[in-house]
Every structure is written in C-alpha cells, then in structure tokens.
Amino acid sequence: MLLLVEQMRHRERPDVRLGFSSSHWKTIRHGLLAMVVAQTLQSLTNLIDQLWAARLGEGAVSTLGYAQRLVFLLLGLGVTAIGRATLPVFSRLAADNSAGQERIAIQWAILLAVLGLAILAVAWPLTPWLISLLFERGAFTPADTQATASFVRYSLLQLPFYFPGIVLVQWLLAARRYQAIAWLAGVNLLTKMLANYLFVPVFGLDGLALASSAMYAVNTLVLAAHIQIRRRRL
C-alpha cells in the first residue's frame, strides 16, 4: 500500500486490473500447488517428531521443545541469509538462460557445506554453556541442560547438509522445477520416518536429531544427483 501511494505521488500509478484472465495464472497455479504439497509434506516431519517424543516418557516432549527453539533459530537464519543471497542470482541466470547454472549451484553448495562444518566445529563445544545461559533456571535443571545439549549437538550434524540443500532448492525454484521440489519433500518424509524407526530405539530422543541429519543428508545427495544428471543431459 505504501509503495502504491509513493508511486501515485510521483504520478507513476501502475495500471492494475483485478481478474483471472492473465496468462501468468496458469504458471502460478501449477507452481503454487506443487509448493503447497511440498510444504505440507515437509511440515509433517515436525509432527512425527512430536509423536515419537511423546512415546519416550515424561520430559521428552519438553526437552524436544527447548532444543528445537535453538535449532530452528539457527536453521531459520540460514534459510533467510542463504535464500536472499542465492535466489536473485539463480533467477537472473535462469531468465538469461545462462550456461553453467548447475555448475554454479554445485560450487555454492560445496562452499555452504564447508561453512556448515565450520559452524558445527564452533557450536559443538559451546552448546551446553549456551543452553545453561538461556534456560537453566527454575524448573530447568542441570540435568535438563545436558539432555537438551545432547539433542542440539546431534542436530548440528545436519548443518553441512542443510545449508547446501538450501542452495540447491533455490536453484530448483529459480528454474521453476516445482514438481521436483514436491517429490523431494516426499522423499524427505519417507527418509525421516525410516530413520526415526532405526535410530530412536537405539539413541532415544537423540535419535530424532540423528534422523533429521540423515534426512537432510539424503535430501542434499538427491538434489546434487539430480543437478548432475541434468548437467549431463544439456
């Protein structure tokens, strides 16, 4: 609204018409449906973790909640920063039909994997201290700090896979390969369910974090394989 007012003030009012006759609606509907399916499937992984945690006894759901606050904060910052940096570049390359788009995506993914490893190395020893500083008061005891720190540490293992995965998904978005993103979300959900089944009986609550790391590892490997296959076909 503010942008519209500013344009009108400079006599640059856009010619806006409401309706569904534009040829762009077909493209939008196609992409929107695929993205809704992808987002729904990916969101189910959090619900699955809650259900598994509820079966692990008293305090497991609470520990999962505290740990995920830190994990989601870190992952959210990564999505925002990496997405803002890469999507405009990939969109411009796709619009210009530039050669070597896939190679650039792979190079950036490798760079972000290294960054993920660096953050993992720094955050691993600091995790118990940070959790103690943020949460350890009242009913949150030192034992809770240790349990939460253990989960967060295992969750950090996903960073070397999660960050490059963001880059590769941004490339798929720029290339309008929405169906591939939807299929990938289905693969992620199946991987998560299988990994929970394998890891939780052995590692308990920490198995949920390990399962997420396995899910993002498979996610990134599938994305990289998809892009490499596309490079060879072009």
**Run of helices and strands:** HHHHHHHH
Per DSSP E runs of 2 or more residues, the count of β-strands stands at 0
User: What is the structural class?
Assistant: mainly alpha
Strand percentage: under 5%
Question: How many discrete structural domains?
Answer: 1
Question: Are there runs of 5+ residues with pLDDT below 50, and where?
Answer: none
End-to-end Cα distance: 44 Å
Q: Write down the overall geometry.
A: globular
How many DSSP helices? 8
Residues in helices, as a percent range = over 70%
Work out the radius of gyration.
21 Å
Largest sheet: none
Mean pLDDT: 83
If you had to describe this structure to a student in words, what would you say it looks like?
With 234 residues, this protein is an all-alpha fold. It has one domain. It has eight helices and no strands. It has helices at 2-9, 24-54, 60-95, 101-135, 142-156, 159-174, 178-203, 206-233. The longest helix has 36 residues, at 60-95. The mean pLDDT is 83.
